[in-house]
Amino acid sequence: MADESFRDWIKSQVAAEQYWFHRFELLPDVVTPGWSEPRLQKLPHFGLPDDLTGMRVLDVGCAEGFFSFEAERRGAREVIAIDSFPDSVRRFNICRSALGLKTTAFLCNVYELNPRTFGTFDVAFFFGVLYHLRNPILALEKILSVCTGRMLLQTASMEIATHLDVPLARFYPFGMPSGPPEKPQFDPTVFWMPNAACTQALVAHAGFRNIELLSTDKVGVVLRAESPTRATGVAPDPEKAPWS
Q1: Residue 138 belongs to what H/E stretch?
Q2: In sequence order, what are the beta bridge partners of 58?
Q3: What is the rounded CA–CA span in Å between residue 171 and residue 142?
Q4: Is the pTM of this model over 0.85?
Q5: In terms of Cα–Cα distance, which of 111, 71, 62, 113 is closest to 90?
Q6: Which of 28, 61, 115, 239 has the most CB atoms lying inside 10 A of its own CB?
Q7: Pairing between strand 192-194 and 104-107?
Q8: Which of 231, 209, 20 is nearest to 122 (CA)?
Q9: What is the DSSP code string of 180-232?
Q10: Using one digit for the tens of pLDDT, what is the confidence trace for 58-117?
Q11: Residues whose CB is less than 8 angstroms from the CB of residue 186 and which lie 6 or more positions away in sequence, other chains included
């Protein structure tokens, strides 16, 4: 009876939300009604390691948490997720409760990242966020400050066939249509649409090394890059918190 009550509670929480981005199964026959199916559309292309055993993982712009939960399933010892939208963190917590996982989400902007409060990470996910940022270089520098391993990045992109090797980006000062193809909505938070060369150049300028382009089709630009400082990710020292 308790299990059925919990299932009913999860279903009611899911139904109460007006918007979902990720669509994935929480319980048998309980699926979040998102318009993006990351397991089919993104996971095969984003370069996640099959084995994350013992690693500390950061998920920047976690939305409902699909990739955070996937990292925990793949053995990560700790997963920290951040998102700047309160609604996303609330939906994340519904999913976390349903799945019985320990991943933690914080209401936090990427520009707030620093090793003093977040520690360092073996792997940083930076999926679907870059083009939403007014200051993408600053964001990449902030991620580098807490990444002592590798970053996996995906961004929507645009290419000009005659200038594939030239770093270019289109600027949208007031946003652009976005969302599901069958029902696009105007998104005022899209600012930059880089090409692959520009994305690699931004990552290199921020200080990452050994940049490897994984994909430029189907899901935009996907790349993997390494921090110049390689070390095992560690949690922040509670004796050196910002208020101490």
Answers
A1: helix 136-146
A2: 80, 124
A3: 22
A4: yes
A5: 62
A6: 61
A7: unpaired
A8: 231
A9: -TTS-EEETT--EEE-HHHHHHHHHHHT-EEEEEEESSSSSEEEEEE-SS---
A10: 999 999 999 999 999 999 999 999 999 999 999 999 999 999 999 999 999 999 999 999
A11: 175, 176, 177, 178
Whose tokens are 């989400």? That residue is 105
Identify the residue whose tokens are 């090797």.
Answer: 165
> Helix H segments across 48-114?
66-73, 86-99
Taking CA atoms, 12 is separated from 15, 31, 76, in Å, by: 5, 12, 30
Q: Which residues pair with 209 in a beta bridge?
A: 226
Assign 3-state DSSP to the chain and report helix, strand, coil percentages, each to 5: 30, 25, 40
Q: 198 near 220, Cβ under 8 Å?
A: no
* Residue 56 to residue 111: CA distance in whole angstroms: 20
Q: What is the pLDDT of residues 188-213, one digit of tens each?
A: 999 999 999 999 999 999 999 999 99
Distances from the Cα of 132 to the Cα of 126, 135, 171, 189, angstroms? 12, 9, 11, 5
104-132 residues labelled b (16+ CB within 10 A) or e (exposed): ebeebebeebebeebbbbbbbbbbbbbbb
Q: How far apart are CA 52 and CA 8, in angstroms?
A: 33
Interatomic CA distance for residues 4 and 153, integer angstroms: 39
91 CB burial (10 A radius; 0-12, 13-18, 19+): buried
For residue 204, what are its two tokens?
């290199």
